[in-house]
Write a structure and sequence with these properties.
40% strand; 16% helix; 206 residues; transferase; six-stranded antiparallel β-barrel; alpha+beta
């Protein structure tokens, strides 16, 4: 479980293509401190498992399903990535509940800079739009953010200087893909309400 508070901006140092998978080597001095085989680290919002750890680098295998459903397949040597270790029990929840399970990808559509922040417009897949609401939470490339405006096929976010300087969202340009994870609570509520709506019809059929 993560909170969407990025700990550091890491870098892809090697990519090995495997049958139906890829193996990434990533550099991240902060997240590798104390890391061991089997630990989880979120990479651009995707929960990956540490395979090997040496110095300030670690390797992680990314299966085809993850490559197809996220933007990790577009990463190459030199790509910068957002890194976060799982939260611990009793720690402050600085962002919101993030699972590291990407629901889909969007694209940076537009950036509007101002003196103290930047408004970024992101495209939104149609099947995810119902989970995104104004002032709700969304995870973009592993960063917990508040939705400013929600449309049928887009949403906007407001990025402060710290986010621009310390995450990939400061360097992403229009057309670049981003990983999206919607609020898991919204998905559970939808499922529960959907099941409840089916109860009367089921009882009537008895």
């Amino acid at each position: 479980m993560f909170t969407g508070i990025v700990e550091e901006l890491g870098e892809i140092t090697a990519v090995e293509n495997l049958p139906d998978a890829s193996r990434f080597r990533l550099r991240g001095p902060v997240v590798t401190e104390g890391a061991k085989h089997g630990d989880s680290i979120a990479v651009n919002g995707v929960c990956l498992t540490v395979v090997e750890h040496e110095g300030d680098e670690f390797t992680a295998d990314v299966m085809a399903e993850t490559l197809n459903r996220s933007s990790l397949g577009a990463l190459a040597v030199g790509s910068r990535v957002n890194l976060e270790r799982p939260t611990s029990v009793g720690a402050r929840l600085g962002g919101h509940i993030v699972q590291g399970h990407v629901d889909g990808t969007g694209e940076i559509v537009e950036r509007k800079p101002s003196d103290n922040w930047e408004i970024v417009k992101v495209s939104l897949p149609a099947d995810l739009s119902r989970y995104v609401v104004e002032k709700g939470s969304i995870t973009v490339d592993g960063v917990s953010l508040t939705v400013v405006d929600a449309g049928p096929d887009y949403f906007t976010i407001s990025l402060i200087p710290t986010t621009l300087a310390l995450t990939t969202l400061g360097i992403k340009q229009p057309g670049d893909p981003v990983n999206l994870e919607v609020d898991v609570i919204a998905k559970y509520v939808e499922r529960l309400l959907g099941d409840r709506a089916q109860v009367p019809s089921q009882e009537a059929a008895k």
